[in-house]
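Hi W., the 6-O-phosphono-beta-D-glucopyranose complex you wanted:
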Amino acid sequence: MEYYEYASFPENFLWGGSTSAYQVEGAYNEDGKGLSVQDTKEVNTEITDFKVASDHYHHYKEDIALFAEMGFKAYRFSIAWTRIIPNGTGEINEKGIEFYSNIIDECLKYGIEPIVTMYHFDLPDVLNKLGGWSVPETSAAFVEYGRILFEHLGDKVNYWLTINEQNMMILHGSAIGTANDKASNVKKDLYQQNHYMLVAQSKVMKMCHDMCPHAKIGPAPNISEVYPETADPKDFIAAQNLNAIRNWLYLDVAVYGRYNPIALAYLKDRGYAPEITEEDLEVFKSGKPDFIAFNYYNTSTAAHSSFKDKVVGPEDGDQQIELGEKGVYKAVYNQYLERTNFNWEIDPVGFRATLRSVYERYGLPIIITENGLGEFDELTSDKKVHDQYRIDYLKAHISEMKLAISDGVDVFGFCPWSAIDLISTHSGVKKRYGFIYVDRDEFNLKEMNRYKKDSFYWYKQVIEMNGKVL
Ligand code: BG6
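Structure:
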């Protein structure tokens, strides 16, 4: 839609940036931290592991000072469960509490709002060995972990995020390292994990409201609108299928307290449906989010699929789009979209579409907790990084977010990925996202010096002008 007059970003819009603990902190076994599944998972030997990462653990003051210089109004980071409770349950590690308390204080010193993710892919390894999310004990352990966070840090935090990209942990659990590949029926097991996470999430949201009435809390899935490949009505049904299974399944439980009917029909038919008790349904009704946070990188495109299909993904076997499923949808590349050097589709207009869909469907305020471009950056001999491609990417996405605001969508913050360079989940250090360059290579840690990229100066201006000039 075009308008005669366009809206501006609201006053107090939370411009910021994001990171996650295991990708940025390093110090994987320091000061009493226990191991998480990200510390113990096997990594491809061509890329770095997460043990040192960007060494934010030792550089956090310098890093947050740089965020403040950029003008950040918010910093979204995650807490490593294993820094707080090294074994997942039981003894609390005071040093862990102290570290996050310091991070929060450092943010508050500069007037930066801390936006805290409770869990970002780094399940305590001890809990994983005891069955991970496949057993209800982990769900109970997460709730207890939440109680400890609210008790020790709750007075200083106004925005909590429960679980980062729960939907990606279910749909791509093996790649992320959170699937139980030994289960007799891996997919059924994943959907049982999903259910236990949803129960834990609702309990934690209720607890947050009870223990920290000043604070707001919400889920943080990865959401992407799904297009039909063509106007063939069968392709449209395929797109609805993927939307239900990829996106709405997760948010419908969080917001409406019930499973999405299309997703549930699919789960039952395929024998993947979790056990859902009456008590669980009560829990879903009692703990609701105040807002929706979501990560957006691109849209998905789906075509009709029947049980007879032999191939349901791209013929080159590339895995950078959804995986496709016989009788549900075929995953296809969108012919209208360009791709990054890592083969991820780029779709700023789809960002507007996704914002509109989420807001129309749930009517809750939205904060974007990830969006950004992973690229091969180059540090020049005079210590500059000319990342105009990142500026172009973010400019296009912020412009479309502004249009979504004109469409009536209530967006209250934008925290792109990533505030500073960190280790990519799948591609090591070579795939960089930050506004700040961290000088290390895949295996040579160097001095870990920080350098401001061109995008740093550009984003600083965007924030100064509250998005009026991009
Ligand atoms: C999101 C995750 O899925 O995408 C981040 O929340 C991740 O942890 C980001 O790093 C980008 O993915 P990748 O694979 O390029 O690091």
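Residues 14-304+336-464 form a domain with the TIM Barrel fold (CATH 3.20.20.80).

W.
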